Amino acid sequence: MKTAVALIALLPLAGFAVNILFGRRYLRDRAHLVGVATVTVSWLLSLYVIYHVFTHQEEAFVWDAFTWIKAGSFTVSWGFLVDTLTAIMLVVVGTIGMIVHYYSIGYMKGDEGYYRFFAYLNLFMFMMFTLILADNYLLVFLGWEGVGLCSYLLIAFWFRKKSASQAGKKAFLVNRVGDWGFTLGMLAIFFAFGSLQFPEVFGKAAEANGGIVTWICLLLFIGAVGKSAQFPLHVWLPDAMEGPTPVSALIHAATMVNAGVYIVARSYPLFIHSHTAMLVVMGVGTFTAVYAASIAITQTDIKRVIAYSTVSSLGFMFMALGAGAWVAGIFYLFAHGFFKGLLFLGSGSVIHAMSGEQDMRKMGGLRKKLPITFWAMMIGSLANAGLFPFAGFWAKDEILAMDFAAHYYVVWAVGLVTAFLTAVFMFRLMFLTFWGENRSSEEVQHHIHESPWIMTVPLIILAIPAAVIGLVVGLPPDSGWIHSFLEPVFFEVESEAFAWFGTGGALMLLSLVVVISGIVLAWAMYLRDRDLPAVLVARVPWAYQASFRKFYMDELYEVAVIRPVINGANWLWVFFDTRVIDGTVNGIAALWGWIGATLRPLQTGRAQNYAFGIFAGVFVLVIVFRWVWGG
Amino acid sequence: MSAVDWYLALATALFCIGAYGVLARRNVVLVVMSLELMLNAVNIALVAFATFIPASRAVDASKGQLFVLFVIAIAAAEVTVGLAIVIANYRTKRNVQADRFDEMKG
Question: In angstroms, rounded to a whole number, what is the distance separating the alpha carbons of residues A424 and A367?
Fold first, then answer.
């Protein structure tokens, strides 16, 4: 077990090392062999670990491999904690990570940075595994920063493209704001508990002062907001779509962006002691969910729609966690990883077929030409929209039911609206892409083809969990298998039997009706009556513009943050650096220059002048000692 | 004036003449000679003190005379070096005027 846990993370690191050292010169177009092999073995090992957890559910596996940092009373180990929550994350990260690696063989074929791509992906896997396996906040933070770095490297993978390198920078800088909160959170934890190890911190959580726990939770949540792209730090995720599509699927849909949700769920023993923090989590999540969904509805770039959908889904997860629906939140994370990964890989297949075109207005009618992609995307969309009996349905419904049961009626209503919007934009995407006639140029149309098997097989494999995972782990609702599985982690969550013919059933029916009406609306607007969207836009142009321009968030940041920073830096450069700092330095030099020039004539070079100085000095000294001080 | 004062007056006079020579003469050879004059003025003062010191401190008297011998020896060495420099300078500048040697002017 120890070997397995250690190797899960170390193998991708070794793969990274091999590829980065030898990839360029020796491996080149064989670079995937190393990358895929290490990740596959990691996946097999993680299956073994999951099996172990499965058979020892009650008892978490804790192993401190070695002491990492020791300074005074501060000790941090390089340690592993494997419990049922870790197991769920391992399934998502390991499985989707491996599938994306295989998919990339086809997608990145012939790219000049082929070896680099697999090296970064492997590094990412190492960091992500470290993040979820760690048994203390600092090691989590190592993985946290590491995945952020890989995210940056992979978003800006095509760094010769200006927009890609800009997007990478944006992601990195916005995440930095969140990391600042996380770092302060760690300081606060150490201040309050004297340790960063999960078992120690959580053991003392109940006795801690409520105020500091609230601060800890809020600071950690700032980190989560950055990493999981919640309002107002969501702006980096849609731009992150500049990266290669497998990266979007792996990092910006299925794994890294879940890190924020994971850390909140992992800090469950802290969060349950702070009602305020829970409310903040719920509020931010709820707002982000509906906000992102209302943007997704007008975007035209296929990947951006899915990106905003991801932001919305992550908001849904935070809404669940904040409302106390811990298991439902993780359930949603679990299901979301599969269907959103599937949607991204599917959109990658579409983009591949359309010769790199990402604008949905130029797509259409791909149903016949890309049958496998179409069916996979269909399953993904149904799961994302939350239609019975796909994965998203059970998780989403459980969250909404929990909101309702906890009397958060506003949150519940907003969640319902979000579900409606999600159905609309997902099927807008489907109808625009796969139905109707193709609107691209002759040449692009000529090249449309189904992707190679190395890309379609991953789609098929991912479609299976996206379709059935809700049925497997989520039934019956509110007390399904996943509830009993996660019980050791979320020890205080009560689960009640689901009332099929009571409130539960009624709510389920209602959300089903909402989703179906969303799909019907999308059908009416984008398939039956194509002029309807234009009419609507003409009727309420301000609403359309607001949504299309993402509620002017980027412009707001431009005015409120970026411009002032650039202007401030410019001022510091032109005024402070060149005037004040250079002025001081040059002034001091000039002063001594002046003094030197003034005293220079004294240095005549004639020995007799100096001798006269000596004599005069002696004369003065004699007078002083004899008559002034001598007395 | 007691006996020692006469000697000290002579020493002072010689010292002042020497100092004037060092500061005012332009010929370096004369400057070196004036320097010797100053040293010898001091020597006179030293032997005068040694001679007129009270008998109770006879040991100090021998010290004063010993010191003079040192000064004479070192002055001889100093003149050797000083005149060597003068000759070296004469070879490059073709004169021995002190105010011409101002290469170190700032």
Answer: 19
A-chain residues within 8 Å CB-CB of B86? none
Q: What is the pLDDT of residue A318?
A: 92
CB contact under 8 A, A600 and B22: no
Q: Tell me whether residues B101 and A605 touch, CB distance under 8 A.
A: yes
Model confidence over A236-260: pLDDT tens digits? 888 888 888 888 888 888 888 999 9
A:B CB pairs within 8 Å: 33
The answer to whether ipTM exceeds 0.90 is: no
> What spatial distance separates the first Cα and last Cα of chain A, rounded to whole Å?
95
The rounded distance, in Å, linking the Cα atoms of A160 and A162 is 6
CA distance B49 to chain A (A): 20
A322 has pLDDT over 70: yes
d(CA A292, CA A284): 12
- Point out the residue among B22, B101, B105 whose CB comes nearest to the CB of A611: B22
Tell me which amino acid residue B46 is.
L
- Closest by Cβ to A611, choosing from B23, B101, B103: B23
Report pLDDT digits (tens) over A595-629: 999 998 888 888 888 999 999 999 999 999 988 88
Whether residue A607 and residue B103 make contact (CB cut-off 8 A), yes or no, is: no
The DSSP output letter for A387 is: -
The structure tokens listed for B89 are 């300078």
Interchain proximity B102–A604, CB inside 8 Å: yes
Spell out which residues of chain A touch residue B101, defining contact as CB-CB under 8 Å: 605-607
Residue A263's contacts (CB-CB under 8 Å, 6 or more residues apart) are A140, A144, A182, A220, A223, A224, A227
CB-based contact A473:A122 (threshold 8 Å): no
Over chain B, what is the mean pLDDT?
A: 89
Contact B103/A at CB under 8 A:
yes
> Hey, is the C-beta of B22 within 8 angstroms of any chain A C-beta?
yes
Q: What pLDDT, in 10s, does the model give residues B9-28?
A: 999 999 999 999 999 998 99
pLDDT tens digits for A493-505? Answer: 665 666 666 777 8
Q: What is the mean pLDDT of chain A?
A: 87
